[in-house]
Design goal:
single chain, 11 helices, 302 residues, 34% helix, alpha/beta
């Protein structure tokens, strides 16, 4: 089933400094989460939701992403000759049915600037943005982007944002929305970027998936860089809301946890969750984890 919005932009230009040294010579989006690199889950999610065209906004040192999604006929022939059909199946993602393109953000100037690089790709059409370091749902099987696209078209929105409630002590890591109501879909009055625990207006956090009208590009251009020289996407979305535009939140379901792998603790947790849920190796992983937990519990009790 095709998505009502055909185009998606996936920013993957971030430096990944919070994951050093693992990201010194490879993109953070290519770090494995159980069987697959993070960014593959994102691309498969968009294909499953019916997106047809995908633009990766890359940066310096990100060639591994392009190599990963390029077909590799020599590898396929080698696997076929060796009779390794199970490994051939593992390369099925090379035929996702997406028209994949790449552009480069030469200077890392923030998420807003990265999305601005997609303007010539999306033209005057609406588009989805999916962050390349965030997976939605265990195994990445969420259809949230399709729901967001359907809401965008049905409600004639300017912006639709996926949101999920986070613990109060985590609000400082996210953009937090101020809503006009409850339910699965609601109007967003404004956003606050990484507020303190005391100042947060809610616990509803932006969850790394957006749908935009092309109106967003003009507002991104008006955003002044922050003290680090970055163009914050949150500032442009806030401007849409303050100018009377329709900004909607779509709440993720209970089975649509956002796995944000932007730092070491969340990366470790994501890897463990996905490995433990693996259909083939999960039982062995869970058994090993139980042994480890017993050992540490015994050591701490001494």
């Amino acid at each position: 089933m095709e998505c009502p919005i055909a185009n998606a932009v996936v920013p993957v230009a971030g430096l990944g400094t919070r994951l050093l040294p693992a990201t010194k010579s490879q993109p953070k989006e290519m770090l494995p989460v159980a069987r697959k690199p993070i960014v593959q889950y994102v691309a498969e999610e968009l294909a499953r939701c019916g997106v047809r065209n995908l633009l990766f906004v890359t940066g310096r040192g990100k060639a591994a992403i392009e190599n990963h999604f390029d077909p590799d006929p020599a590898l396929t022939r080698t696997l076929r000759a060796a009779g390794k059909t199970d490994l051939q199946v593992a390369l099925d993602f090379e035929r996702l049915g997406l028209n994949i393109l790449y552009t480069r953000q030469s200077v890392p100037r923030g998420l807003g600037d990265a999305i601005l690089h997609g303007e010539s790709f999306t033209g005057r059409e609406p588009f989805i943005v999916a962050l390349g370091d965030s997976v939605i749902g265990l195994r990445g099987d969420s259809l949230a982007c399709r729901r967001m696209a359907e809401t965008f078209v049905r409600r004639r929105a300017d912006v639709v944002i996926a949101v999920r409630e986070v613990p109060r002590d985590h609000v400082r890591f996210y953009g937090i929305v101020v809503s006009d109501g409850d339910g699965d879909t609601f109007r967003i009055r404004t956003l606050v970027e990484k507020p303190s625990t005391q100042d947060a207006p809610s616990r509803l956090a932006v969850a790394g998936r957006y749908a935009f009208s092309p109106r967003i590009f003009g507002l991104i251009r008006e955003v002044r860089p922050d003290r680090r020289g970055e163009i914050q996407l949150t500032d442009a979305i806030r401007a849409v809301a303050e100018q009377g535009g329709t900004v909607l939140g779509v709440r993720l379901g209970a089975d649509e946890k956002r796995y944000d792998v932007g730092n070491m603790p969340s990366y470790f947790e994501t890897f463990l969750d996905f490995a433990a849920a693996d259909p083939d190796h999960g039982p062995r992983v869970r058994s090993h984890m139980r042994r480890i937990l017993r050992r540490y519990s015994n050591e701490e009790g001494r």
